[in-house]
Amino acid sequence: MDDAKKDLFWVVIILLALAVVWFYTGGPARPSATNSPFLKKPLQKHQTEIQKQSQKIIGNVSSHEKKPSEASEESAYKYKVILHAGYAARKSDPQKEYVEIRASSNNKKPLLATGWTLEGKKGLDIKIGEGAYLPYSARVNPQQAIFLQPGAKAYIITGESPIGTSFQLNKCTGYFAQFQNFTPYLSKQCPYPKDEDLPENLSDKCLDYIDRLPRCEIPLKIPWGLPSSCGSYIAQKINYNSCVKLHKNDPDFYKPEWRIYLGRGDELWKKERETIVLKDQNGKIIDWSSY
């Protein structure tokens, strides 16, 4: 056997001996094998990087971009009511802070709104209460469940009601705006005093004065020189209560709008990055709005 063959023979013998020793000392199952620079480490590192990137992408999606309905069961009222919450960011005064809900004109029947709740990021859970269908100022108003007719809207104001109750608007409620402040402003759709059925005994001077009177306003100062009969008529007939008495049976007396007051003394909604969720009586999501 020449020298080259001898060297090769001993190399093979040494390798076989090392293999036998490696096998009997644990082989690939040894702890040191898993702590080596490789053997699964590159793959684990790649998987870790993928996981980190996924978490980063998910984390970059802001909470207000996620639909709350993804995590909760949807309400039977979904698509029947729309919530608009952008107004909530504009005011910090609870008397001026509000959100709006609108019932679809495609609804087949009125929707019960009493018992719905509004929730925001502050963790508040505010319930919609009852209201007065025919309100009166400076008196106790009977409370009833609020129903939204198809196409109706409701402004849900954070603060206290200026007249002490939530209420549905009617042809005469514009009179309330003369002595109280409302946000949003109450529209003045009352009949003009000159268009009412006026008594025949009123003088021309009285009639001329009534012709100039605006709608939805009680005259606070009657001009000197008008007959007493004119003054009596104006004091008794040109006001909210008289307007209601004359027109409550008109087919267009009630307006498709509610003012609902939550009776809170502090601001409810955040100025930005807010999500307001409207839920039904069973806690299921009707709609939500983010800004």
Question: What is this entry, summarized?
Answer:
The protein is of the alpha+beta class and 291 residues long. The chain is built from 6 helices and 11 strands. The chain has helices spanning 3-24, 31-34, 41-59, 204-211, 228-237, 240-247, and strands at residues 81-84, 98-103, 111-112, 117-119, 125-127, 147-148, 153-157, 167-170, 254-261, 275-279, 285-290.
- Morphology call: elongated
Mean pLDDT: 83
Number of contiguous helices: 6
Task: Give the terminus-to-terminus CA distance.
Answer: 90 Å
**Spatial order of strands in the largest sheet:** 1-2-7-9-8
- Our estimate of the beta-strand percent is 15-25%
If you consult CATH, what is the topology of the largest domain?
Immunoglobulin-like
Identify low-pLDDT runs.
28-66
Q: What is the gyration radius calculated from CA atoms?
A: 38 Å
Name given to the CATH homologous superfamily of the largest domain = Lamin Tail domain
- Top-tier CATH class of the largest domain: Mainly Beta
Biggest sheet record: 5 strands, mixed
Structural class by SSE content? alpha+beta
- As a percent range, the share of helical residues equals 10-25%
Question: Can you name the CATH architecture of the largest domain?
Answer: Sandwich
What's the total count of β strands? 11
For the record, the count of structural domains works out to 2
